[in-house]
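Lecture notes, unit on protein representations.

Consider one protein chain, 204 amino acids long.
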Amino acid sequence: MLPPWVATPLARWFGGIILFLFALASVHQIALAQTASDSLSLPSISKPIDVARETSDSIPSGFTPSKSPALAMGLSALVPGAGQLYNESYWKTPIVVGLGGYFAYEWIHNDNLAQDYRDQYESSKTEDNPLGDTGLLAIRDFYKDQRDTFLWYFVILYVANVVDAYVDANLYDFDVGDDLSLQVIPGVTVSERSTAGVGVRVVF
């Protein structure tokens, strides 16, 4: 079994890596949402004739989204992971709940250790040694730092969970895949005289 001053930093590192991956997935999803809402072609002075029309042009004017972004965000704000269930992103819920429970456990564990070493430090103070055992003080400060770190992890996870639910609800009715590619295609531009040109478009 690893000593606490080794196991605790390892636990913090492991939790940070998983949180980073979840936040990275959320940022990637936000980027996909931005790409889906923008034109598929990059702006240019003269637009190629054969560039595909934007997908948003084919959306009916009376379109009603299947999922409410406000409701998804509210559910995740009240109960982390609930918005992901509402959006039918079932695989995300265990990640949110698991990480949240893990960070909460580590916060409580390190807080208990910090209080325990605080009591030991206070007990070590005597008339001959009013400053007490500085070693116990250093250990107390160490666990306080670990406790505060996991609190920040929990806050970041909570915010990422709410943002992810909101974005996921907005993307629910769109077929936004992960296969993004940049294509350079020849085309004829429309101007005073016809000239050969190059068009650039993002393809899903």
